[in-house]
Write a structure and sequence with these properties.
The protein is of the alpha+beta class. It is built from two helices and four strands, in the order βαββαβ. The radius of gyration is 13 Å and the shape is elongated.
C-alpha cells in the first residue's frame, strides 16, 4: 500500500474539544510518527503538530475529522516522498 508522509498542524481554541481530539489521535496511533504540543497560555490556545506516515485517504480522513471539531483549526502539509507500507 502506498503511503505519504505529512504534517498535520492543529490549533486548539476550544479546550472542550481536546478529549475528542485525543480519541482521534489514539484511533490513528499506528500511523503517527510523533507529535508535539505547545500550550500558548497568553492566548488561551494550544498548538499541536502531528507527523504521520499513512495512505492518502487515511491522512485526509483524520484531518477532516479533526477539522469538524468545534474550536479546532487544522491544515495538512504533504511531503513529496511516497513509499510502501
Amino acid at each position: 500500500m502506498e503511503t505519504r508522509v505529512a504534517l498535520i498542524a492543529i490549533i486548539v481554541e476550544n479546550p472542550d474539544s481536546v478529549e475528542r481530539l485525543n480519541a482521534l489521535r489514539h484511533d490513528y496511533a499506528p500511523y503517527i510518527i510523533g507529535r508535539m504540543g505547545v500550550p500558548y497560555r497568553e492566548r488561551n490556545l494550544s498548538i499541536i503538530s502531528v507527523a504521520i506516515d499513512a495512505p492518502q485517504d487515511v491522512i485526509s480522513a483524520l484531518s477532516g475529522k479533526i477539522g469538524k471539531l468545534p474550536g479546532i483549526n487544522v491544515k495538512t502539509a504533504y511531503s513529496n516522498v511516497g513509499g510502501k507500507a
